[in-house]
Each structure stands twice: as structure tokens, then as C-alpha cells.
Amino acid sequence: MEDTIFDKILRKEIPAKIAYEDDDVLAFHDIDPQAPVHVLVIPKKKRTGVKTFPRASAEEIGTYMIAVAKVASHLDLDTDGYRVVFNQGRNGQQSVDYVHAHILGGRTLKWPPG
Ligand code: 5GP
After folding, report:
1. pLDDT string in tens for the chain (114-residue length)
2. Ligand 1 pocket, Cβ-based, cut-off 6 angstroms
3. Closest CA to ligand 1's atom 17
4. Which CATH number fits the domain that encloses residue 13?
5. Does 29 participate in catalysis according to the annotation?
6. Which of 13, 46, 103, 112 has its CA 20 to 30 Å from the CA of residue 25?
7. 43 part of a folded domain
8. Residue whose CA is closest, atom 8 of ligand 1?
9. DSSP string for residues in 48-76
């Protein structure tokens, strides 16, 4: 698997503003925020994208998704709400091949996305 910028953030080789960390995930603020709150959540066990999830265990993916919800809660977004986005592949405009949940909040978001 190709080493990505998120592998380097996880190894603390390049800085990021950490929002949350536990044994399973690292969450950090996006360098180019698209909303007042824009945090990326990556699993410490690397997966390149959502399309690999069918090869993972339900426990692994469940743990990851529960952590995404915990991070949103930790960011105080439960009351007003938020959006979770996974971009996958070329049409999804995924630019980093390390799976990451975008948590977007802090304003009313438009729908549908472009
Ligand atoms: P994607 O387009 O792959 O779904 O999202 C990648 C996200 O990573 C983008 O929103 C981009 O702004 C963010 N990003 C890219 N490089 C860095 C970086 O070095 N640090 C941080 N914190 N975010 C980054």
C-alpha cells in the first residue's frame, strides 16, 4: 500500500491539529475546512477506501463507525447535527488513499452535494 499524507500524520511525522485519539482511530482538523467544523477520522488499522470494507470484519468497521459518531459527539455536534462523508475513488473525488470520514458541521449544509 502506498504511503500517504495520512500515514505520516498518524505516525506524527507531520503536524495536524488533533481533535480526538483512541486505540482505534485518529481524528484531526482538515487543512482546508469546508465548514466551521471539518474533521477527518481515520482508522489506525489502514484501509485505502470504503470499497475495501467488504473484506473487513463487521467488528472492525463497526468499531470505526462508532468512533466516528463519538468524535462528532466530542465535537459537540449532536444537538445541531452534522454530515459524515466518505469519498471513494475518482468519481467520488477521493484524493488521499487512506480511508477517512469527513465530519462536517457548525452550519446548515446544502443538499444535494455537487
Ligand atoms: P478526500 O478528497 O480524499 O475525500 O479528502 C482529503 C482531505 O484531506 C481534503 O479535505 C484535504 O483538505 C485534506 N488534507 C489533505 N492534506 C492534508 C494535510 O496535510 N493535513 C490535513 N489536516 N488535511 C489534509
Report:
1. 899 999 999 999 999 999 999 999 999 999 999 999 999 999 999 999 999 999 999 999 999 999 999 999 999 999 999 999 999 999 999 999 999 999 999 999 999 987
2. 5, 16, 28, 30-32, 40, 87, 93-96
3. 31
4. 3.30.428.10
5. no
6. 112
7. yes
8. 30
9. S-GGGGGGS-HHHHHHHHHHHHHHHHHTT
